[in-house]
Specification:
heterotrimer; A mainly alpha (287); B alpha/beta (349); C alpha+beta (345); B: 349 residues; alpha/beta; D-Maltodextrin-Binding Protein, domain 2; 2 domains; 12 helices; 40% helix; globular; C: 345 residues; alpha+beta; Rossmann fold; 8 helices; elongated
């Protein structure tokens, strides 16, 4: 997208290499910190998983139907959450990016406020709102829209609502950024050349904000994979995600090697999704 | 290495106490504070009222509270040699496992007087702090005038006792309840027949709308009318009943468990940890605690100091109608049972 | 390409942004096939005028008519107006060919026709062979040509160019100016060109409309604008100029405020206050003579530019042909101007 795409000319390529080496030194403290507090624990964890000198725990994690199913559940939920976040987040990010500064500030407050509230508090708030006798159901019954309370809590929809609420800002912000970066003259140009609003969206906004969409979707998806509190409390114990299982292995069964193996698979999955998204974004930029 | 030296130091310290016999001068120096780790919530508040305030006044040592009780963390602390807690609450099976894994210090019966405790709970490494039971909580406006389920067979009878139920998201208790509902006598439960239990659980699965994960959920679910029947810990129901919630307890066939505290191996102030356990074994203080939470201590003299109105809410009144969870069985089979539980949960009905 | 070129008429356009009046009653007529330049400094309202014509802004009052039909409230997509933006506004994710094809695709033209027309348009702007490049792989001049091809490929009724050459270097700018002129003539396309560069305006235009503070100052042919500006602003903005004010004291003579008398051919009534314009390159011989001291001399290759402090107190900019060595500042000089070379307004 931007002019700094890595395929200008060989000359610049050489210069970039030089900059890379020089740029490495100031980053050293951060790298050391990252090594101590991130890389080392990860390696230590991987060590746990092969403590016995065999890959038995991985065989268990990937071989037994129970765990495969939980992996798939987790993946499926992450995909649905990402899709819903995108459907809700795009219009919101778009509106905030294109409205007047006053409305944009208000929109930002609404988007960011949940980020400053604890996940636990928000989750309990949803329990109050979504329960059988919760605010939302009572209201629906009062206005006569339904006669029996809707099952919104303690099932998949509860988990979905809760997770989307927590993760939506991570989708809105990159999309907002992408829409803001878009040159408004391109929109005028498209209109002037005969494009209807719908076509302006499909042909100009959507392709040009794709990097923002990818960034947001990747963050939301990756964060969804590791979700723990929300599915446990809003799902009524019926929605099993991998993080819940890992927590069981650590706190209850004390089977740390297995917990480590499950975590390693989750990590691999996350890195895999992230790399794929990166690859895709780069391809997009190249084509 | 460090732990070894610490243990040696402890043994030498113990020898010194023996040699000095009651010489207060031999008491280890007082730290500014000790750390008590417990499961938090209203329990922490009750412990403060019943035990910690008195301890602080008596010895001038501040009691710092942390939570929750976490076996994984205990193990990590002991293994890394950096033990923050002086005493910690611990689950029943975890206490057995902790003892086997050599993660805890011995209880010093010269400091902690357990002479009035039932023989069964006077184990060398684990201090039985209280007893609690998992029983049926129900809404009194749905089940009026004693029309509530009075056995696990009733609980399973969704025609006679309709309505959404909540049970714990864990095999413990539930496997026992299922077997009792299926006709196994309470004294013949162990070893548990897991296949039979899960088969029985299949029948109730569609009627359980919430598998609860935290102790406060069942009472709250009843209060919010999210469910009309919930299994739960007696103290949590007692707390809301005290506040006038339309909830009552059916004690029949409840699953008894003891609340336990241990001193982590390598704790910084083991002597003062023992002193804290001693404070927690005083009957008058246990009565205060029981009145607050509905969890009576196991010093049997404590009941003498409890108000008559509170007594009906203490599980020690109903021990005959209930059964003790076999922590040893669970310590050996818990992991297998949990795995089977997860698989059963995932199974499409 | 068959021309559908239309005439454009704007009537009494008013546009305010809060307190700022961007257009203060602008009226213009542009004939079919004509190239009209709107010339003015930044903030004069020329871009707002273009946006109103293109449909990106709605005027507070007034009307825009194409071939006599009012399109003031028509959405831009329906106007059939080709536009070239200041920074080209090429779609960065589309190739050259797809950029040029864009307006045809929006009109749901058949694939074969799109290919044919895109080929023709790229031929016209001499970009054959660049079809599959992305905009960022092109030079500024090439991007400009793509923008131009995209603006004309759908055979628009009007072509609007908003300072299209601002980002190009001088040499390229001149080439592009001639090319646009050539193309515009060849297609016979009614064109409105916006610039703040008076030289560019002189090179390109059939007629020039000079704008300032939201109002048209003068609309006239290029020579008219240069030789016979309607007021101080136009005189000053277009080309170098020596402007003075004075009173007509007798027929054929003006007395400036400094007391200096000038002979003129203009027959303004005696006693009227007038402006007087003398272009620097018109000096040489003539009955109106000026003697003075050179304050500054600049060598411009084809001519000499002098700043002259005259003995009677006037300050003049004078251009003279290069005849010998550069005169030193402080040296004295004498020059003159014919009465017919003095414009009175």
């Amino acid at each position: 997208m931007s002019s700094s795409t890595p395929f200008s000319s060989p000359v610049f390529g050489g210069a970039r290499c030089f900059v890379k080496v020089r740029g490495f030194l100031p980053a050293l403290p951060a790298l050391i910190l990252l090594f101590c507090f991130f890389l080392f624990p990860v390696v230590r964890m991987l060590g746990f998983s092969v403590e016995a000198g065999t890959l038995d725990w991985y065989a268990k994690a990937l071989g037994e139907g129970l765990y495969l199913e939980v992996f798939w559940n987790t993946f499926e939920i992450a995909m649905i959450v990402t899709a819903v976040c995108l459907l809700l987040g795009y219009p919101v990010g778009f509106l905030i990016a294109t409205t007047t500064p006053g409305w944009a500030t208000l929109g930002f407050i609404f988007v960011l406020l949940p980020l400053w509230t604890s996940v636990l508090v928000r989750t309990y708030a949803w329990m109050v709102l979504l329960g059988r006798n919760g605010v939302f159901n009572r209201w629906l019954i009062d206005i006569g829209l339904v006669s029996d309370p809707l099952p919104l809590l303690n099932n998949f929809s509860g988990v979905l609502i809760g997770m989307v609420h927590v993760l939506l800002p991570y989708m809105v912000l990159p999309i907002y950024g992408a829409v803001r970066r878009l040159d408004p003259a391109l929109v005028s140009a498209a209109q002037g050349l005969g494009a209807s609003s719908w076509r302006v969206f499909w042909r100009v906004y959507l392709p040009l904000t794709a990097p923002g969409i990818f960034a947001g979707a990747t963050i939301v998806f990756v964060l969804s994979l590791g979700f723990f509190i929300t599915p446990a409390l809003l799902g009524g114990g019926k929605v099993m995600m991998l993080a819940v299982l890992i927590e069981q292995q650590i706190h209850q069964t004390l089977n740390w090697p297995f917990a480590a193996a499950l975590s390693a698979v989750l990590l691999a999955l996350t890195v895999g999704v992230y790399s794929l998204a990166q690859l895709f974004t780069r391809q997009e930029a190249r084509s | 290495m460090r732990n070894m030296r610490r243990r040696e130091a402890m043994m030498i310290g113990g020898a010194a106490v023996l040699a000095g016999r009651g010489a207060l001068a031999q008491e280890p120096p007082k730290p500014a504070q000790i750390v008590v780790n417990h499961s938090g919530g209203s329990m922490g508040a009750a412990m403060r009222k019943a035990f910690f305030n008195g301890f602080e006044k008596k010895y001038g040592i501040r009691v710092v509270e942390t939570s929750p009780a976490d076996f994984g963390k205990l193990r990590a602390m002991v293994e890394s040699g950096n033990v923050e807690w002086d005493i910690t609450e611990i689950g029943g099976q975890d206490a057995i496992r902790a003892t086997k894994m050599n993660l805890v210090e011995k209880i010093d019966d010269k400091i902690v007087d357990r002479s009035k405790y039932p023989e069964k709970v006077r184990t060398p490494y684990v201090f039985a702090s209280s007893v609690y039971t998992t029983i049926i909580g129900y809404r009194t406006d749905v089940f009026k005038n004693g029309s509530q389920p009075k056995s696990w067979a009733d609980w399973w009878d969704v025609k006679k006792f309709p309505g959404a139920r909540s049970m714990r998201d864990h095999p413990v208790d539930n496997l026992e309840f299922a077997l009792i509902a299926d006709g196994v006598p309470m004294d013949k439960l162990y070893p548990l027949d897991m296949d039979r239990a899960f088969k029985k659980l299949d029948q109730i699965k569609p009627h359980v709308s919430v598998w609860w994960a935290t102790g406060q959920q069942p009472a709250q679910l009843l209060l919010d009318k999210e469910v009309v029947l919930a299994t739960g810990w007696n103290g949590r129901f007692y707390d809301l009943i005290k506040k006038g919630a339309p909830i009552e307890i059916e004690w029949t066939q409840g699953a008894l468990k003891q609340g336990s505290f241990v001193i982590p191996r390598g704790a910084k102030n083991p002597y003062w940890g023992q002193k804290m356990l001693a404070e927690m074994s005083i009957p008058q203080q246990q009565a205060v605690y029981a009145t607050e939470l509905g969890y009576p201590g196991l010093n049997l003299e404590a009941l003498n100091y409890v108000d008559a109105k509170v007594k009906p809410y203490l599980p020690t009144q109903y021990i005959d109608k209930q059964f003790w969870i076999d922590d040893a069985w669970w310590a050996d089979n818990g992991n297998k049972a949990l795995e089977a539980w997860n698989a059963w949960k995932l199974k499409k009905a | 390409m068959a021309s559908r070129s239309a005439d454009l008429e704007v009537e009494g356009l008013v546009k305010r942004f809060g307190e700022v009046v961007a257009l203060d009653g602008v009226s213009l007529d542009i004939a079919s096939g004509e190239l009209l330049t709107i010339l003015g400094p930044s903030g004069s309202g020329k871009t707002t005028l273009l946006k109103v014509v293109a449909g990106f802004e709605t005027p507070d009052a007034g009307a825009v008519k194409v071939d006599g039909i009012d399109i003031t409230t028509m959405p831009p997509a329906k106007r059939d107006i080709g536009m070239v933006f200041q920074n080209y506004a090429l779609f960065p994710h589309l190739t050259v060919a797809r950029n040029v094809a864009f307006p045809l695709e929006m009109r749901n033209a058949p694939r074969a026709e799109i290919d044919k027309r895109v080929g023709e348009a790229l031929n016209l702007v001499e970009l054959k062979g660049f079809e599959n490049r992305l905009p960022r792989q092109l030079s500024g001049g090439q991007q400009q040509r793509v923008a131009l091809a995209r603006a004309i490929v759908f055979n628009p009724r009007l072509l609007l160019l908003d300072e299209p050459f601002g980002a190009l270097d001088r040499k390229l700018r001149e080439t592009m100016q001639l090319e646009v002129r050539r193309l515009q003539r060849r297609l016979g396309l009614t064109t409105v060109f916006i610039t703040h560069d008076q030289e560019e305006a002189l090179v390109l235009s059939d007629r020039i409309a000079v704008m300032n503070r939201g109002a048209i100052q003068q609309v006239a042919s290029t020579t008219e604008i240069y030789e016979r500006p309607a007021n101080d602003f136009v005189a000053d903005f277009v080309g170098e100029s020596n402007i003075f004010h004075g009173t007509v004291t007798e027929t054929g003579s003006v007395t400036l405020e400094s007391g200096r008398r000038l002979l003129i051919t203009h027959s303004a009534p005696v006693g009227s206050r007038v402006g007087v314009l003398m272009r620097p390159e018109r000096f040489g011989r003539g009955p109106n003579t000026f003697n003075g001291e050179i304050r500054e001399a600049v060598y411009l290759g084809s001519s000499l530019k002098l700043r002259l402090a005259c003995d009677d107190g006037l300050e003049l900019i004078v251009r003279l042909p290069v005849t010998g060595p550069l005169p030193a500042s402080g040296s004295r000089i004498s020059t003159g101007i014919e009465p017919e070379s003095i414009h009175v307004f």
